[in-house]
Design a protein that fits this description.
By secondary structure, the protein is an alpha/beta fold. The protein has 18 helices and 16 strands. Helices cover 40% and strands 13% of the residues. The strands form three sheets. A seven-stranded parallel sheet has the order 2-1-3-4-5-6-16, with helices on both faces. Strands 7, 10, 11, 12, 13, 14 and 15 form a seven-stranded parallel sheet that branches. A two-stranded antiparallel ribbon has the order 8-9. The structure holds iron/sulfur cluster.
Length: 507
């Protein structure tokens, strides 16, 4: 069979600014995940002709794969789901069997069924063999009943890695090889799709073989470790990293909870060449346990978190942190003031400041759906920063966006960029700061437009207040423009997501 595997890392950028072009070509492109590469490798091992590609927002995604495919797997987040739906319709017209997997399929399988033949929740090699072998009659939602036990090695995924992250077949300083050492997480953050996914580590033998392969064949190429929470079994996984001789270790990037770290562990991360780390602090009012500050909240949490980042500063060259502002426990100016204070005190940390979003399958989604607080008519295109898709408990939309604009104005300011660049010596980290500042400026611009809309367009305000579910013209224009030629296949009239309902799942 001729099988295509396409991972959508972005929606269609239309128009695309020079800053966005650079950001997507050099940074977004590096977000390619492991599972689509694994599917491609498994299909190849079964003797099929496979075509693997990623799409990061530039040009027509359909051109990334050849025509006349028998089967296409598409992996996507929710913000690029309408594009995935358009692609599914285009492929179905050509007689191609369409399969969707990834975060969006897991969150909204009932919506995906409107467009795709098969919707995959949990995936493994056996399930892929069954799909390719025609074991499932479409339309169907399918899932592997087994916990994922193993993935193809780096050597087996090398053709896909070359396609996704190298330039002209060769690694460049911005190349990252995606890797997983574990799945799931022991924490239960209510907004996170991994809240109920039990932690399990993958084979340390395969990890060791992968690290040895990279040391020998791709020396110095960085690893993007996509574990939801790296280092839960810290000693076990560090032991594997330490088994590679110091002069042959590759730099790597992780997401980990501050609670898993202590001075000795930070030194081990440093010795094994951890180059970047992005812990989630999330809120100043909650999730304190995983931030390693016990039950401290607000200003006491700030003190504890700042202290932890100063411990990390001397050992990890690039540090980021994730915040979500506007969750139900947030009220007034304090969460914004605390974030601003954190930024002033730790200019060496990049803060990703996010807007609450309720993804299907999470407790937050259930709470907001039951409370009528999800904007039902908002297309999935807008399930990404800087858009607001829910009704916040303690902020009206205008006040909220005004506060976000104030923070983003600081985040994107030239003065702050200068200060940040001066606070670090890591060359690639400086380049990342520049790209992130450009991205923050685009978001700031959009947020300012939304403030203006909220101030001048009564319908726009009413939509965000939950008083009407007629999609404002502002969003209709962006939706239509982003889809470009695919709008005929996924017209605006179909853009309202199916958020509820539990489909039958075949195993
Ligand atoms: S610690 Fe991170 S990965 Fe784990 S549930 Fe919370 S947000 Fe998700």
């Amino acid at each position: 069979m001729k099988i295509g595997i396409l991972e959508l890392l972005a929606g269609r950028l239309n128009p695309v600014s020079p800053g966005q072009y650079l950001d997507h070509f050099f940074a977004r492109k590096q977000y390619a995940s492991v599972m689509p590469q694994a599917i491609s490798a498994w299909c190849r091992q079964m003797g099929h002709v496979t075509f693997y590609a990623t799409y990061y927002g530039l040009g027509d995604p359909k051109n990334r794969l050849p025509p006349d495919l028998d089967l296409v797997f598409i992996c996507t987040h929710s913000f690029s789901a309408p594009l995935a739906y358009g692609l599914a319709r285009a492929y179905q017209r050509e007689g191609t069997l369409t399969v969707i997997g990834g975060p969006h399929a897991k969150s909204y399988p009932q919506d995906c069924l409107r467009y795709f033949d098969l919707v995959v929740l949990e995936c493994d090699q056996t399930l892929i063999a069954d799909i390719v072998g025609g074991q499932f009659d479409p339309p169907a939602v399918i899932s592997s009943p087994r916990p994922l036990a193993e993935l193809p090695s780096i050597a087996e995924r090398l053709p896909e890695i070359r396609t996704a992250t190298f330039l002209k077949g060769k690694p460049f300083p911005g190349s990252f090889i995606p890797l997983l050492t574990s799945l799931g997480c022991p924490y239960t953050c209510d907004f996170c799709s991994d809240w109920n996914s039990p932690y399990r580590s993958l084979s340390p033998h395969r990890l060791k073989a992968d690290l040895q392969f990279i040391a020998q064949n791709l020396p110095g190429v960085k690893l993007a470790i996509f574990d939801p929470n790296f280092g839960v079994r810290f000693d076990e996984v560090m032991g594997v990293f330490e088994s590679i001789p110091p002069n042959r270790r590759s730099p790597y990037v992780i997401e980990s909870s501050l609670s898993l770290l202590n001075p000795e562990r930070i030194k081990r991360l440093h010795r094994t060449r951890c180059a970047a780390m992005m812990p989630g602090v999330e809120s100043w009012s909650a999730y304190s346990h995983k931030a390693g500050v016990g039950r401290a909240i607000l200003w006491r949490k700030l003190e504890g978190v700042v202290e932890q980042f100063y411990l990390l500063k001397d050992y990890i060259p690039y540090l980021g942190v994730n915040f979500i502002l506007g969750l139900d426990l947030d009220a007034g100016d304090e969460p914004f003031e605390l974030t601003r204070e954190f930024m002033y005190r730790t200019p060496f940390v990049w803060p990703s400041i996010n807007i609450p979003m309720a993804f299907g399958g999470t407790p937050l989604f259930d709470t907001l759906l039951a409370g009528g607080r999800i904007l039902n008519a908002m297309p999935f295109t807008f399930y990404t920063i800087p858009y607001l898709t829910v009704i916040l408990k303690n902020y009206d939309p205008l006040t909220y966006f005004q506060k976000m604009v104030d923070l983003y104005a600081l985040l994107a300011s030239p003065g702050w960029l200068t200060q940040r660049l001066a606070s670090m010596s890591y060359g690639l980290g400086k380049a990342v700061h520049c790209l992130r500042t450009l991205a923050a400026r685009s978001r700031l611009q959009l947020m300012r437009t939304m403030v203006e809309q909220l101030q001048t367009d009564a319908h726009f305000y009413a939509f965000h207040a939950g008083q009407t579910d007629v999609l404002p013209h502002f969003y209709a224009v962006i939706y239509t423009r982003q889809l470009g030629p695919y709008i005929e296949l996924v017209p605006l009239a179909e853009s309202r997501p199916v958020l509820d309902g539990t489909p039958e799942i075949l195993m």
